[in-house]
Specification:
Elements: H1 2-29, H2 32-39, H3 43-49, H4 53-76, H5 82-99, H6 101-112, H7 125-137, H8 147-164, H9 176-191
Helix pairs in contact: 1-2, 1-4, 1-6, 4-5, 4-6, 5-6, 5-7, 5-8, 5-9, 7-8, 8-9
Length: 196
Amino acid sequence: MVTQDRAARTRRALIAAAAADMDVNGYDGATLSAISASAQVSMGALTFHFSSKRALAEGVVEEASALTRARAAAAVAGQSSPLPAAVALLQRLADLLDESVVVRAAALLARERPKAVPGWHQAWVPTLHQLLREADRAGQLHRQARPPVVADLAVCLLTGAEVHRGRPAGEGGGGAEDFLARLLPFVWRAVVTDGA
């Protein structure tokens, strides 16, 4: 049991260190030696848990995806209508981008290595698509605003929020949540019906 606990702690430390390194340096700039040093783990222990940098990146995405699925479920639970649930989902994801280096690294990996590393978007885009289809059936979307297109627009907004969050406050920065809060009302007016 003690060995399993230590292995789990080591794995978590490696994922956290990898996420921090990849968040700053991207996948290509991150190095296994820097990650092992940051996690205070030997290179042998790193390669025991993760056979390659790609495997480590996949571990980051898996952890971020689990956290994202849990937060997405919490965001939509108890919402009385699909459209507010979709907005709550996007807001919760922007919060996650601001607060979790693991989620930020997974979002970055989704942009940098979309074919090599399973995407973070798979943890929340299906839920968004479902909510938008329900909103369309309920008459909440403008008749020309097709759910797949609205979902693509939402993904673009969230990607913009992720990229934008790195800007200094004096240059219009303020985090992903702030970015989304400023732009979402304008976008939403174009896709929802007057009564929604």
